[in-house]
Write a structure and sequence with these properties.
454 residues; alpha/beta; Rossmann fold; 4 domains; 14 helices; 14 strands; P-loop_NTPase; ribosome binding; GTP binding
């Protein structure tokens, strides 16, 4: 992956100057100061030394350089003063903004944005073949629209057949009159298509594995949360596993599944997934589709929140927004408020997040509160059935099958536009049927003693 780095890592350690831009018309979950602190942590995670920073408030971005021309001149002087060789913007720069900033700040200075920095961190932390493929795809899709002559060189006309270009991927031939820039674009495009094909195979394999897993009728719980919230630590504690844990951002990327016994003896599968962050690059979300589908296929999400973090509420909201973005916004959630062992006033901090669903204060490190958390998961998954009346369209046959498999059917009527079915369904599946309610959902839950559970 070294050849695909978006940041120059030939030196022992780069010196970065950070730039933040607060646009008044844009609403961010984190304040500008907090976002800049997070950007500094990201830079440190990537092995970069931060030597200074500056911010600017804008009404609208400058169409040429995003920030104002006066601020560009100021940054140029500060970069020289601090002897920085890299400028990192706490926004996603358009290809034009990046080109114009590099021209204005000097050809020897590298300008990148938050997205490129996160992609570089993922490249450093990807270890499995799947992870490497996903990160490589995200990097190339980010890089392709940003290819300029500043990145490559104009090739001489290759009279006749030409030769192999030697650019990324080692594929593609240079035709007569074709510039190196055009060769690079074509080569990277071909590499992107190849990576997509490989990842589609991975996606198909995961899909088959999930189908086999569903046949066991063992519920699946996906651990989600902001990066460094303690998900891997929690999975280690629950399953006596030995997953890699580190106090840094994006320490683990690859999904890991472990079997855990609930207090009543039932078995469930816990799956740890990649952590989220505000402004998560869209390229990563697309490239990690196969991995993120592990979340959207879960029966229940366990949202792990670092309750000790000053921006715990904003981080939790960022996770919720990302879940909606990847199509997992309607899956039931239990919230684990982690690291309460580090709080002087646990109740005060917990009260600040009282709007989040089904909260359980825990310490993944010491094990405090894990018994109550597992009991809460058990109650949610197994003990409560809901009485519903739904009309399922004929093109939603999987919902009808799920009802027969997991629920208790009382009455079925085939109608013109779908099948009306009345009965009981485990509460964990209720969100999947909400769009098809044919009458108001009854408030009362049906006790499991009245019916034989699946």
């Amino acid at each position: 992956m070294a050849k695909n780095k978006l940041i120059n890592t030939e030196q022992l350690q780069q010196r970065a100057f950070l730039v933040g831009a607060n646009v008044s018309t844009r609403e961010d979950l984190l304040s500008q100061d907090d976002s800049m602190q997070e950007l500094e942590l990201l830079a440190q995670t990537a092995g970069i030394e931060v030597v200074g920073h500056v911010t600017q408030n804008l009404t609208i971005p400058n169409p040429k350089t995003y920030i104002g021309s006066g601020k560009v001149d100021e940054i140029k002087l500060l970069v020289e003063e601090f002897d920085a060789d890299l400028v990192i913007f706490d926004i996603e720069l358009s290809p034009r903004h990046q080109r114009e900033l590099e021209k204005a700040l000097g050809d020897t200075l590298q300008v990148i944005d938050r997205t490129a920095l996160i992609l570089d961190i993922f490249a450093q932390h990807a270890h499995t073949s799947e992870g490497v493929l996903q990160v490589e795809l995200a990097q190339y899709e980010y890089r392709l629209p940003r290819l300029t002559r500043a990145w490559t060189h104009l090739a001489r006309q290759a009279g006749g057949g030409g030769g192999r270009t030697g650019s990324v991927g080692g594929v593609g031939l240079r035709g007569p009159g074709e510039t190196q820039l055009e060769v690079d674009r074509r080569t990277i495009s071909a590499r992107i298509e190849l990576l997509k094909e490989e990842l589609e195979k991975v996606r198909a394999h995961r899909s088959r594995y999930r189908k086999q897993r569903k046949r066991t009728h063992i519920p699946v719980i996906s651990l989600v949360g902001y990066t460094n919230a303690g998900k891997s630590t929690l999975l280690n504690k629950l399953s006596d596993a030995e997953l890699f844990v580190a106090d840094k951002l994006f320490a683990t990327l690859d999904p890991t599944t472990r079997r855990v016994s609930l207090p009543g003896g039932q078995k469930v599968l816990f799956t740890d997934t990649v952590g989220f962050i505000q402004k998560l690059p869209t390229e990563l979300i697309a490239a990690f589709r196969a991995t993120l589908e592990e979340i959207s296929a879960a029966d229940l999400l366990l949202h792990v929140v670092d309750i000790t973090h000053v921006n715990a509420s904003a981080q939790a909201k960022s996770v919720q927004e990302t879940l909606v973005e990847i199509g997992a916004g309607d899956i039931p959630i239990i919230t684990a408020l982690n690291k309460i062992d580090g709080l002087k006033d646990p109740q005060g901090a917990i009260a600040a997040l009282e709007d989040f669903p089904n909260t359980f204060p825990i310490s993944a490190l010491t094990g405090q509160g894990l018994g109550a958390l597992l009991s809460g998961i058990e109650e949610f998954l197994y003990e409560t059935f809901i009485d519903i009346d739904v009309q399922i369209p004929y093109d939603q046959g999987q919902l009808l099958s799920l009802f027969y498999e997991k629920g208790q059917v009382k009455q079925v009527v085939n109608q013109e536009f779908g099948t009306r079915i009345i009965g009981l369904i485990p509460r964990r599946f209720i969100s999947r049927y909400e769009p098809y309610f044919s009458s108001s959902l009854k408030n009362s839950a049906i006790d499991e003693d009245d019916f034989e559970l699946e």
